[in-house]
Structure formats: C-alpha cells, structure tokens
UniProtKB/TrEMBL annotation, chain B:
F(1)F(0) ATP synthase produces ATP from ADP in the presence of a proton or sodium gradient. F-type ATPases consist of two structural domains, F(1) containing the extramembraneous catalytic core and F(0) containing the membrane proton channel, linked together by a central stalk and a peripheral stalk. During catalysis, ATP synthesis in the catalytic domain of F(1) is coupled via a rotary mechanism of the central stalk subunits to proton translocation. Component of the F(0) channel, it forms part of the peripheral stalk, linking F(1) to F(0). One of its GO terms (molecular function) is proton-transporting ATP synthase activity, rotational mechanism. Its main location: membrane. It is found in: Cell membrane; Endomembrane system. It comes from Planococcus maritimus. CDD domains: ATP-synt_Fo_b (cd06503). InterPro entries: ATP_synth_B-like_membr_sf, ATP_synth_b/b'su_bac/chlpt, ATP_synth_F0_bsu_bac, ATP_synthase_B_chain. It holds the Pfam family ATP-synt_B. It is a single-pass membrane protein. GO terms for cellular component: endomembrane system; plasma membrane; proton-transporting ATP synthase complex. F-type ATPases have 2 components, F(1) - the catalytic core - and F(0) - the membrane proton channel. F(1) has five subunits: alpha(3), beta(3), gamma(1), delta(1), epsilon(1). F(0) has three main subunits: a(1), b(2) and c(10-14). The alpha and beta chains form an alternating ring which encloses part of the gamma chain. F(1) is attached to F(0) by a central stalk formed by the gamma and epsilon chains, while a peripheral stalk is formed by the delta and b chains. This is ATP synthase subunit b.
Length: 236, 173
C-alpha cells in the first residue's frame, strides 16, 4: 500500500501522471453525464433532465441558505460543477485501485492533498476576488476589522485556516477511505480465509465511503458558499 | 516509515506544481465546457419554464377576473331585465284594468241609451197605434151606428153610445 507515484518532469515542472489522468477521467465522466443529461431539453422534464434539475435546485438551495440569490446567482455554475466533480472524484477510488510497477495509477484524485488544496485555495482566492469586486476595496478591507478591530490577527489566521481545513478535510476523508479499502483488499487477497473475512467489512466500508464521498462533496460546496457569502454579503 | 506517505508532499522533496496547474486547468475547463453545453441550456430551460408558469398564472388570474366581471355584468343585466318585466306586467295589468273599466262604462251607457230609445220608440209606436185604432174605431162605429140605428137614436144618445163603445174598445185593446 505504500505505493509510489508516476512522476514526470516537463520543463522543470513535476506532474503526478496518475493525478492528471484521474482528474481527466473525473472531468470526462462529469462532462458526459451532464452533456447527455441535457440533450433534448424540454419544458416538461423527463428522465435525466429531472435529475440534473434536481442537482441545480439542490445547489441553488445551498447558495440561498447562505446569501441573497442576487449575489449568489453568479456562483451557481461553480457550485454545480464543484459538487459533481468532487462527488465523481470521490467515487472513482472506491471500486478498485490500479497499481502498475509499484506506481499507484487509479485512485480518487481527491485523495491527493495537492489537488484538494488547489481547489480550496482557488475557492478562497475567488472569495477574496469577489469580495473586492462586489464591495469595493474599502468595504472589503473594513470587513477584516469587524466585529472588533483587535480581532484583525485572528481574521488573517482564519483565512489560512479556512483554506487548510477546506482542502485537508476532503483529502483526509477520501484518503483515509482509500487506505482502509487498500488494507481490506490486501487482506482479501492474502488467503481464502482472509477473503471470506474481508467481504463483509469491505462491503460495509465501501457503502460508508459512498456516503462519505457524497457528504464531503456536499460539505465542500456548502463551505465554499459560506466563505463566499462571508466576503460577498453585506450583513454577516 | 509506515506513515511517511501521509505527510504532505511525501511523494518527493519537491512541490508538484504540475498537479496544481493540471487541477486548475482541468477544473476550469470543465466548468467552462459545462456552462456552455450543459448548465447554460438547462438554466435557460428552467428560466423559460419559470416564465411560462408565471405568465400562465397571470393569464389565469386575468381570465378569472374577466369572467367574474362578466358574471357580475350578466347578473345585473338579469336583474334589470327582471325588473323591467315586472314593470311591464304591472303596466299591462293597470292598462287592462283601465280599459276594462272603460269598456264596461261604455257598454253600460250604450245599453242604457239603447234601452231608453227602445222604450221611447215602443211608447211612441203604441201611442201611434192607439190613435190610429181609435180613429178607425170611431169611424167604423159611426158608420155602423148610422147604418143600424138610423132614426131611433137621438143625437145625444148616439154620442153617448159611441163614447161608451170607444171606451170599451180601448179597454179591450
């Protein structure tokens, strides 16, 4: 289980090829689902269109619970894409892991801290960007002195803490799930008794991981909207 | 160590900037593509439906108001018509009463007049008849008397007899 990673250096920049591949796979799956679900759109929705509309309404509900729709409408696309992308990413590592020559190729892309931290940092930077854009530089900076000016250092720390917790929560949950799955898979492949013994916990843990994956995707989007609304909304 | 791979950046002594770039590019590209091909059209359809429902509700409300207004109008018209009919019937009744009275009065007057004239005529005729008969009788009697009682009866007796006869004849008549 202590696998290496297929690293590749291009112009002095290091790529983890498994990350790149899995990100592409996740993006492709999300795109295909969304693309084929939104063919032949009708006013009276059927089948997959219903599902996609449910997802949209779900994200809309998340945004609306955090901020005014007038401010939050612009984050709708971001929210839906994040939710589906992270959920699909979380699910990818569940059925199996592929190891080639000691390198781990097939896994959840979200089981890598670099990927999740990138997403988290993007969100936080985005929140600052929209904070400045919507409230002006003055309104944006005065938010750091609220509710009390002496809390300013805490506010600064909060920004970094938010970034770290947002990224690492997702990474930790998914990575831990994969480690346990790998361990159980190792047990199952060890012997016939191990296989029999591993079936039940494997099923239980996979089911639980599906749940965790869904919950984590939801939490990520929810927190994204919370952080965005902190920066964007007037009264918080 | 067993937990070495749990440490951040444990895959090497370097930061794999490539992954960061890849993540960003792939995610942003996915978002852009989805916005173009999936979310955009879907949102459009949902918006369209929202508009449709809103307009349908508005139309329904409007037509409801319209029908309510029409109903009120019809109701007041019906009321008017009923009142008018009532009035007409009343008028006709009154008119009938009046003309009945008139007709009766006229008829009564006419009959009275006719009766009067009939009575007058009858009396007249009777007078005439009596006079004629009387004349005739006198003449006949005179003739008969002169023929039957030529010489015996004096002038005085004669007259008396004639008068008696005439009186008797008048009684008989």
């Amino acid at each position: 289980m202590d696998h290496g990673a297929p690293m590749l250096e291009v112009f002095g920049i290091w790529f983890n090829l498994s990350n790149v591949m899995m990100l592409l796979v996740a993006a492709l799956i999300v795109f295909l689902i969304a693309f084929f679900a939104t063919r032949n759109l009708k006013l009276k929705p059927t089948g997959m269109q219903n599902f996609m509309e449910w997802v949209m309404d779900f994200v809309k509900g998340i945004i609306k619970s955090n901020m005014d729709w007038r401010d939050g409408g612009r984050f709708h696309v971001l929210g839906i894409t994040l939710l589906m992308f992270i959920f699909v990413s979380n699910m990818l590592g569940l059925p199996f892991a592929v190891v080639v020559n000691g390198d781990l190729w097939w896994k959840s892309p979200t089981a890598d801290p670099v990927v999740t931290m990138t997403l988290a940092a993007t969100i936080i930077i985005l929140s600052h960007y929209y904070g400045i854009k919507l409230k002006g530089l003055k309104g944006y900076s005065s938010d750091f002195l609220k509710p009390m000016p002496f809390l300013f250092p805490l506010k600064i720390i909060e920004e970094f803490a938010n970034t770290l917790t947002l990224g690492l929560r997702l990474y930790g949950n998914i990575y831990a799930g994969e480690i346990l799955l790998t361990l159980l898979a190792g047990l199952a492949s060890a012997s016939i008794f191990g296989f029999v013994g591993a079936i039940l916990p494997m099923m239980a843990w996979q089911g639980f991981s599906i749940f965790i994956g869904a919950i984590q995707a939801f939490i990520f989007v929810m927190l994204t909207m919370v952080y965005l609304s902190h920066k964007v909304s007037e009264d918080h | 160590m067993f937990f070495d791979h749990l440490v951040l950046g444990a895959t090497g002594e370097f930061l794999n900037i490539g992954d960061i770039i890849a993540t960003l590019v792939i995610f942003l590209l996915l978002m852009a593509l989805l916005k173009k091909f999936a979310w955009g059209p879907l949102m459009g359809v949902m918006q369209q439906r929202e508009d449709l429902i809103a307009s349908e509700i508005e139309t329904a409300e409007k037509s409801r108001q319209e029908s309510q207004q029409m109903l009120d109008e019809q109701r007041s018209l019906l009321k008017d018509a009923r009142n008018q009919a009532q009035e007409i019937v009343e008028n006709a009744k009154k008119q009938g009463e009046v003309s009945r009275e008139e007709i009766i009065t006229t008829a009564r007057a006419e009959s009275a007049r006719m009766k009067e004239s009939a009575v007058a005529e009858i009396a007249n005729e009777r007078e005439k008849a009596i006079a004629a008969v009387r004349e005739e009788v006198v003449a006949l009697t005179l003739l008969a008397a002169t023929k039957v009682l030529d010489k015996e009866i004096s002038e005085e007796d004669n007259r008396q007899l004639i008068n008696e006869t005439i009186a008797k004849a008048g009684e008989v008549q």
